[in-house]
């Protein structure tokens, strides 16, 4: 914070950097094995209905109890893309940790391992699994996982992000 003296009166200059939740780090400061967890969330029928409206996915497996049970499901199944959305890095501390060095979210992949239904509580996490320097940038790859309230892995995948590096040159995986 900076102070300025004007006519015997001190004022404090506003600096948005003073409002960081955590000190920002650069690509070089990240470490393989770091985990960024999102708060748990319990899905409701309202969440599914909202996602159905936004996605326009009107398959009966997502809203029709009779249809879902007739086809081997215990209840309507939450949309897979809705489950994947729970791995959004913005739901974790990751964007706060990397601050202004974020350039792009470049890749996502996943496998849906178990069905998710309304009433399930999801526990998402991102774990850094590789750091690949590319000149004055770097690729961060994370393992994305979601467990349910029973400890079952319901989604597994990866994300890749492009970040600015502190300096161009010879960066090494940590």
Strand proportion, as a percent range, falls in: 35-45%
What is the number of helical segments per DSSP (H or I, 4+ residues)?
4
How many strand elements?
A: 8
Major sheet description: 6 strands, antiparallel
Low-confidence stretches: 168-174
Evaluate the radius of gyration: 21 Å
CATH architecture of the domain at 25-43 and 87-164: Roll
CATH topology of the domain at 25-43 and 87-164: Thiol Ester Dehydrase, Chain A
Q: Overall pLDDT, averaged?
A: 90
Class by SSE composition: alpha+beta
Highest-level CATH class of the domain at 25-43 and 87-164: Alpha Beta
**CATH H-level superfamily of the domain at 25-43 and 87-164:** Hotdog Thioesterase
Identify the overall geometry.
Answer: elongated
Range of helix content: 10-25%
What's the short version?
The chain has 174 residues and is α+β, with helices and mostly antiparallel strands. The chain has 4 helices and 8 strands; from the N terminus they run ββββααααββββ.
